[in-house]
Structure formats: structure tokens, C-alpha cells
Task: inverse folding
């Protein structure tokens, strides 16, 4: 069974204080790993897709990296508007269901 | 380009009733996936529709059913509602069954 574990569950940072969020996964053949941002009461907003170990993607203050067992979302000099829940999901290479398996998310708060 | 839309925004039902939720996919997308997100949890995959056929299903009972129409919009039907069905229901569309999934704003269902 595919599993995704995110840590920490919650993280409070000062504005400008860089940090990293972790996503550990077990999957029977990774097709893709996805990062989403979710604001309270809203649908997840797509951030990145990573397909193979060693791959990196960047967008503004965010950088996602991937190894064979985990992914990191690095946040550099965050601002209060980066406050949200960050979700990690995997999609497995298999026949049948092509749904995403999500972790519980990391609730990030950036204080001014 | 129009994004994924869902209706209604909120819904209140009583136990035992039936509900239909609707989703319009993003322009150019032929695949719709449905997820259930309980409070404080990551989304859980219900099922996926690809070119009007169910393409895969998560661990949800048969009282959760769906349809996809020729314009690729979709419906999620839930029969015999239970209290535990209270959640945010998310629809995501993608260019194909393995593509990146883009989410709508969700429908908040409350079962009393």
C-alpha cells in the first residue's frame, strides 16, 4: 500500500526565517510526486511535479527536491502570505486507479 | 482559460439522504478525479473518470458513485448518507489519467 508521511505536522517561523518541509513516501514504483498548497476552506493549488530522484523545481521562494525515499520543500526567506498547509502526494505506476495518495500536510505559519 | 468549478459550495443533509455534487473540468482536460478531505486530513481518492468511464477507485463503498458526461464534466453521488460523510469534497481535472491534477474549490458537505 502506498504511504506518504509529512513532517513536521505544524511549523511556525518568523518572516525571513528559511526552513524545509519533509515528505517521506513508500510506493510501488513512483510515477510522480506532487506538492500542493492549500488555504483554509479551499481546494489545493498545484505547485510542483517531480518525476525522478535528483530532480529539483523552483518557484519564487519555494524549491522542491526528490530522492528515492523522500522529498523536501525548501522555503527561503518566507513571507506571511506563504502561510498555508502544504500537501505532498504520490502517484504510483500501476494499472487501474491513477489517483493521488496524499500525506496529512504541514501547517505552516509565518509570523511578521 | 477557465479553471475547475464545483457546485454547490456548501450543502447540509440529514443522515440517510442522498446527495449529488457537480464538477466542471478545466478546458482541454478529459479526466476527473474525486477526493474526500476530512478536517485536518489529506484528501483521499474516491474514484477517477477518464473519457466517461470509471478508470479506478479508492477504498470507498458502492454507495459512492459517479458519472462523467461527454463534455467531461462530472457528478459524484452519495446514497444513504452517514455522519462520517461530512467532509470537503474535491474534484480535480487533468489532461489524461496520469497527468497533473488541478483542483476545484470544493463542496463542503455537512451531514446531521
Result:
Amino acid at each position: 500500500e502506498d504511504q506518504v508521511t509529512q513532517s513536521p505536522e505544524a511549523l511556525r517561523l518568523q518572516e525571513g526565517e528559511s526552513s524545509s518541509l519533509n515528505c517521506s513516501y513508500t510506493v510501488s514504483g513512483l510515477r510522480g510526486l506532487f506538492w500542493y498548497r492549500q488555504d483554509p476552506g479551499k481546494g489545493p493549488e498545484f505547485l510542483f511535479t517531480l518525476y525522478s530522484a535528483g530532480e529539483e523545481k523552483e518557484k519564487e521562494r519555494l524549491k522542491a527536491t526528490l530522492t528515492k525515499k523522500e522529498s523536501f520543500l525548501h522555503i527561503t526567506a518566507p513571507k506571511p502570505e506563504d502561510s498555508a498547509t502544504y500537501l505532498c502526494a504520490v502517484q504510483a505506476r500501476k494499472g487501474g486507479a491513477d489517483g493521488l495518495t496524499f500525506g496529512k500536510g504541514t501547517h505552516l505559519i509565518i509570523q511578521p | 482559460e477557465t479553471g475547475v468549478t464545483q457546485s454547490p459550495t456548501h450543502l447540509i443533509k440529514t443522515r440517510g439522504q442522498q446527495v449529488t455534487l457537480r464538477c466542471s473540468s478545466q478546458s482541454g482536460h478529459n479526466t476527473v478525479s474525486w477526493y474526500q478531505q476530512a478536517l485536518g486530513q489529506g484528501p483521499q481518492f474516491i474514484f477517477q473518470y477518464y473519457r466517461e468511464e470509471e478508470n479506478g477507485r479508492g477504498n470507498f463503498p458502492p454507495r459512492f458513485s459517479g458519472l462523467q458526461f461527454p463534455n467531461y464534466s462530472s457528478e459524484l453521488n452519495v446514497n444513504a448518507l452517514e455522519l462520517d460523510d461530512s467532509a470537503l469534497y474535491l474534484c480535480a481535472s487533468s489532461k489524461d489519467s496520469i497527468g497533473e491534477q488541478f483542483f476545484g474549490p470544493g463542496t463542503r458537505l455537512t451531514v446531521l
